Amino acid sequence: MISTATNKAMQIGKKVLLATVLMLFMGACNKQLDIKSSRQADELGHWDSYEDARSGLMGLYGLLRAALADNNAHWMWGELRNGDFLSVYRTDLKAVIDGKLNASFPTIDAVTNWRRFYAVINASNLFIERVGGCKADQRYTESYYKLDVAQARAIRAFTYFYMVRIWGDVPLIVNTKEGSFDALPRTSQNAVLSFAEQELIQVAPSLPFLYSGVDPAQLYPNNYYGYNSSQWLNAPVTRLAAYAILAHVAAWQGRYIDAAVYTEYIVNNASKSNLSLVSTSNLVTTLFNSGVNNNYNQLLGFSFNRNLGETTSEGHIEQLTLANTTLYPMSKPLPEIYVPKDSIAAIFPRSNGGTDQRFGVDPASVQQTIYTNYFENYSAAVPVFKKIRVVDGNVGNAGQFAVFNSSIVFTRLEEIKLLRAEALAVLGQTDAAYQELNAVRGVRGLASISPAPSRDLLTEVFAERRRELMGEGWRWYDQVRFNKLKRTNAAFNELIDKGGIYWPIAQDVLNRNAKITQNAYWQ
C-alpha cells in the first residue's frame, strides 16, 4: 500500500434507473440522464435490495459520463481552448479555441455550468449514506457493500478534481445534509483537492486491480454483479485508476514527488490490471472502442457500448472531427474542427528520429506514402483527424446519420508513463525520465533520445504528450502545467497569475446562488 508524501441510490425513478443499468451498464446515455436539477436522487426511495445497490452504483457512472459528454464538454474544456484544432465554420467552437469563454453561445453557457457535476456529487453522497440498507438483502454481502462505497467515494473525488481544473474554487459538499451547490459558497481549491486526495488514499487499497478477477484472498465479490472480468474490463474505478487520479491531483498542484510515487506504483503493477503499452495500430482501432472484448487498456474510461444499446450521435469527438475522406466515405463533407497542415508538420517533424507511425512517411512505401493513423486527406485544405473513429452503421451513403461508440478515455498507460516522465524530469531524475519517455516513443516507431546540450527534457516530454494524446482532452491542462513550470510565456503567465486558466461560471449558477461570484478574470 502507498503512503502519500503529503426510496434508491441514483434514482430518477426506479424504472428509469433499472432501464439505465440494462442499457448502458458502464455508464448512461447522456440523453437518458438529462436532468434539470442537481438533486438527482430520490431521497425518499427504498434502499433494501441488491438491485437497488446495483442501480445506484451504475447510475453514478452514468451521471459522470453524461457530465463529460454533454455538449462534447470533455473536449471543449481540455482539447479546444488554445489547442491544436481550428474550427471550420462554427463560431461557438472558434470562441472556445480563441479563449473567449464569456461569449454568448448556448454551447458555452452549457459547458460553463457545473450543474451536471453536482448531480454526480449529490448522488454519490446519497449512495454512500444509504446503500448500507441494501444489506438487508442477503445477496448484498459486506464485500459488495465495501467495494461499492469505495467506488462511490472515488467517483466523488474524481468529480471534484475534474471541476477544480475547470473552475478553481468550487463548493465542497460531502453529505446530503449540507444541501446543494446553489446554497453554499465556494471552497478553496486546495481544500477541495485535499479532500479528494484523502478520499482516494483511503479507498484505493479497497479497490481491485480487476473486477471479477483472480482473488485468492477472496476480498472481492466473485463474478461481480453477474459479469466476468472480460465484461467489466477497466470500466469501474480500479485500484490503479484511483492512483492515476491521485497522480494527476499531485501534478496539478505541483507536488511531483507524490506524482512520481503514484505513477511508479501504476507502472510496477500494470500487469495486474492487464495494462500494457499498445501498438499504434491498436491505438487507432481498438483502444477507444467500447465494444472490443479484452480491451483492458482504458485505465479509466467511460464507455458507449454498442452491444448495450449505448450508440449515440453526440458526446464523442468524432462528431466534431470526422468527415468524408477518400479512404472512408461519409455524407458529411467537412469536419467541424481540424488540425491545419502546417501545425501537423510542426507537431510531427520528420527530424524527430525514426518514422512516427502516428503521422509520418511509411518506410515500406515506394512513393513516400504518409501514414494515415491520425490523419486522412492530408493533401486537402482541411485534413481529417481520425485517430478516434468508432462509427456505427452505414455512413457511406448520403443522408445516413453517423453514430458512434468510442469511449471517453481519461487516462491510459502511455499517458501515465509520460506523466511519470514529467515528474521525474522536474525532480532531476533525468535518466529515469528519458527511460519512460523513450518507452512511449518506441511503440510509435521513434528512436530513443538522450541528453544533449540543445535538448530540454521537459519540453521533449510535453511535445510527446502533445503527439500521443492529441484528441483525448489533455492539451489545455498540459499547457497549464508546462507554463507553470517554465514561466517563459508572458501571455500564459498572465493567465496563470490572474486566474484566467479557469473557465467563467455560468450565469445560471450565479443567479441561483448569491454566495458565489464570478471568477475574477471574467468579471
Automatic annotation (TrEMBL):
Residues 376-493 form the RagB/SusD domain. This is Putative outer membrane starch-binding protein. It is found in: Cell outer membrane. It comes from the Bacteria. The lineage of its organism: Bacteria, Pseudomonadati, Bacteroidota, Chitinophagia, Chitinophagales. Belongs to the SusD family. Keywords: Cell outer membrane, Membrane, Signal. Pfam families: SusD_RagB. GO terms for cellular component: cell outer membrane. It comes from Lacibacter cauensis. SUPFAM superfamilies: TPR-like (SSF48452).
